[in-house]
Each structure stands twice: as C-alpha cells, then as structure tokens.
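Data availability (excerpt). The following record was deposited with the supplementary files.
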Amino acid sequence: MPNPNQRRDSHGRFVTDHHARNRAIGAAAVVGLGAAAVGAALRYGLLDRFFPAAEGHEAPDLALDQPHPEPGDRVPPAFRPDPTATPTAAEREALRPPPGVATGFTEDTRVEELTPAE
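Predicted structure:
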C-alpha cells in the first residue's frame, strides 16, 4: 500500500523523502566532529589543566617559596656517595652496555689520508 502523504513528480513517479536520512547524517557528522575535537584536545594536552595528574609526589625542596641552596650547602653525610668505594661486580655488570650496541669504531673508516694544512 503506497503512502498517501508521498508526493509525485510531473511524470507520476514517487519523489523520495530524504529529510530523515539527511538529519541522521548531519547528526552523525556533528557527533563525529565533536569526538574528533575532543580527541585532538586530549592528544595535544589542551585539557590537562582540567584533569591534573595524580601520579608522583610533591617536591617541597623545589617549591618556589623555599630558599635556593647556596654553593656551600651539602647534603647530609648519610646521603653522600663514598668516592673511594670500589663498585661491586653487580654494579659493574649493571653499567655494562647491552650486547649489540656499538661501543666505538672497530676499524679506521677514513677514505683518504689527512694532509697537513699549509
């Protein structure tokens, strides 16, 4: 049964009504554009001031109201490293570069001899 509210053109054919479809496409475009804008704002950190990071801790020694340490100020002796202590085998192993990392040139890579400047 045809819709009695549907219009016909001059040739007698039914004219399709796209108003509902156009509204749905427009609404989806607006929602997509809004989501893209929020995603870009999150990606580039534009909303960071509204969502402060909860990780880490306060650093009272770096506060602006604290006096700046003078050159003569030193940390307590319990926190100073011993400059005469020899590192243990585990510490030396921890400082060793991983295998496969180039530690320097293994051969001379120059193409031509260096000539003295005149």
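Summary of structural features: Residues 21 and 82 are 77 Å apart (CA to CA).
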